[in-house]
Amino acid sequence: MRPILAEVVTIGDEILYGQITDTNTQWMSTQLDKIGIKTVRKSSVGDQEDKILQILEEAESRADIILLTGGLGPTKDDITKKTLCKYFDDELIINEDALGFITEFFTKRGRPMTELNRQQAMVPKKCIYLANKTGTAPGMWFEKSMGSGKGKIFVSMPGVPHEMKYLMANEVIPRLKKYFETPIIYHKMIRTIGVGESFLAEKIEKWEDSLPAHIKLAYLPSFGQVRLRLTGMGENEETLKQEVQNEVDKVLPMIQSFVFGYDDDDLEVALGKLLKSKNKTISAAESCTGGFISHLFTKVPGSSAYFMGSVVSYANAVKINVLGVKPETIENHGAVSEETVMQMAEGVRALMKTDFAIATSGVAGPDGGTPEKPVGTLWIACAMEGRTIARKVQMSNQRETNINYGSVVAMNLLRKMLNGDYES
Amino acid sequence: MRPILAEVVTIGDEILYGQITDTNTQWMSTQLDKIGIKTVRKSSVGDQEDKILQILEEAESRADIILLTGGLGPTKDDITKKTLCKYFDDELIINEDALGFITEFFTKRGRPMTELNRQQAMVPKKCIYLANKTGTAPGMWFEKSMGSGKGKIFVSMPGVPHEMKYLMANEVIPRLKKYFETPIIYHKMIRTIGVGESFLAEKIEKWEDSLPAHIKLAYLPSFGQVRLRLTGMGENEETLKQEVQNEVDKVLPMIQSFVFGYDDDDLEVALGKLLKSKNKTISAAESCTGGFISHLFTKVPGSSAYFMGSVVSYANAVKINVLGVKPETIENHGAVSEETVMQMAEGVRALMKTDFAIATSGVAGPDGGTPEKPVGTLWIACAMEGRTIARKVQMSNQRETNINYGSVVAMNLLRKMLNGDYES
């Protein structure tokens, strides 16, 4: 069975000019991937008719499914609907369902409905209207009925991420599953931390070379982590899962201590599961990471079960008055020091009455470095009953990278101590 | 003078499969835009030779500059260098500068250098090697010397963001400025908050219709904010700046109260400037936003001048013991209530001895809602000397959106109070 191919196209000058981040294409291709539809190309073009028409033609020549987002706003610079009419030789008409929903949308919110809002209810005559219950822009489903592209599917959705996501989950994915007969694709991701890509690659080279042809390996590095993605393609889901799992079982012993989780389990999710399984609670004292560790923990649904809270102690006065760091410690050793970060961890652990506590203190940059403590110098600590461990890490000179990386290494120290590893 | 056109191509299965977020293309097109080079298309393809060759041909047919990132890692799944050799009928040779740097790179870090690392020093014979001082993958600059694409520029860079950024800033942009004669493009962005796109559009419709042909307006909405981007194109930079500024001066009176900043000034940056200019300090007590407000403040370089710290009070015990919220207040009104959030703001303000303090308490979701307090219910407060103001906001049922949006509305309340607006 030949694979079903998709192209994802985002429309909007704001994306080309780099004024907004496109997170849609990533999410969309992940969803397609889950139902065995292979994304073969992602593209972004501006709000110009000729550019949009050109990419529609190209995409149609390469893929079975073309998913479009963007250019459906109420304002003058949004021309996707008009352009789709031109491409499908169609005309815009008021869709009553859409109009009804939009009217209700504004009544509910007690906001005035403008003529621009009303026009949001206009869609091409030939398309199937996909009801967007999260906003005023419509979803549109086209089936090419003639020509070389006969049978190909075009879907147009708003660029606002949560509106696109609603339409994908509730309308597009279910329809695609009905419309196409899709092959079986199975991914298994092994998540590692604290080891470099090349080092990992050499450790598992023999295993990698021995992988069967229908199982592929990819390395996905990011901020002190490397994800190993195994992708299997086949006919029978159960067999495929088993084959991939066998490969996982083979490679695991070679890299065990670096593995913190699988698949979509980000470090904060894996840590949450670990804390829950051990029935332990956590708090944090953050200086250079400035609340990012707390954000990582709390963005996980249900984190209130184990994350009690944290103190972002940016000012030294807060380190002293709230966390109980000794003034003379900061005086003698500085805020970025082993002694200070250990007292921060112990202080917040006592304050929040948790089993574990992690702390960070470093020079995030770009300024504030000294010869002895250059930008990127980071001290992390983790405290538990009867034991506090601190580590020094040298990071880069890029503030945002340091905040991310610093958070990850501190959380990895917690992971090791939760697992009873107090040495590495 | 005809505009110089660029295409940005990212290479990697991990992007197509949606396993990583592509932030490179956004950043690259912003940099190109600043020197008057127009990005006309962005594309992502997988690590397959035929797909890469196809997109190189297509891009060459449309653009003057083709910027590539990705596929330069040391592992087997990275094939960009080999493919470029095929496209330019070239061969890989060891580049001595590259080899020297890579050797030093590993010596410095006291890490073993593997054969895979050594191969990182191989580049196509015909390209100009661009020294990457931040990693082991090379930058490569090609000038097409014959055929229809004669004179066109191809640049290949690593996909790791900070390595790509280093090469763009230090090698690629300077060379492009020398190689091409570029037109003048000038952007001015007006940043608004607390007003919808359609509402804004109707408020300024007459002004928008009166804009001269060489000045374009775009609406860029995101999380309770709308950015108005004016883009001017012309010959003389000073004249252009003045013309755009005149339009800004015309529209400002219509939308003044919603405007918090300009250009790249995100809300946290604008607030930082405002706090500095008024010589005020700030702290935060975060429940449902879980540290995200603190992160927004502290990701701004120099924020330690006005941001003293915060308490993430996830557990009620922390609200009571650290922030001094009265137990009976939580008992009688609940943690998500006007009374609690006001005591949180006043408590952290006293604890951290700051001029202002903001607090959030809400139901971020996806669970935890009740009939009276459904998911998305948010209370925010801002406290100053002699005055505390609280507001209730209804958000969505999406946790991540609520954390973002909740942070923004709380920071906007601070903005208003800093500006002496205690009513709206």
Automatic annotation (TrEMBL), chains A, B:
MoaB/Mog domain segment(s): 7-179
Matches recorded under SMART domains: MoCF_biosynth
InterPro entries for the chain: CinA, CinA-like_C, CinA_C, CinA_KH, Competence-induced_CinA, MoaB/Mog-like_dom_sf, MoaB/Mog_dom
Superkingdom of the source species: Bacteria
CDD domains reported in the protein's UniProt record: cinA
Pfam family, one: CinA
NCBIfam families: cinA_nterm, molyb_syn, PncC_domain, PRK00549.1
Record-stated family: Belongs to the CinA family.
Record protein name field: CinA-like protein
Organism from which the protein derives: Emticicia agri
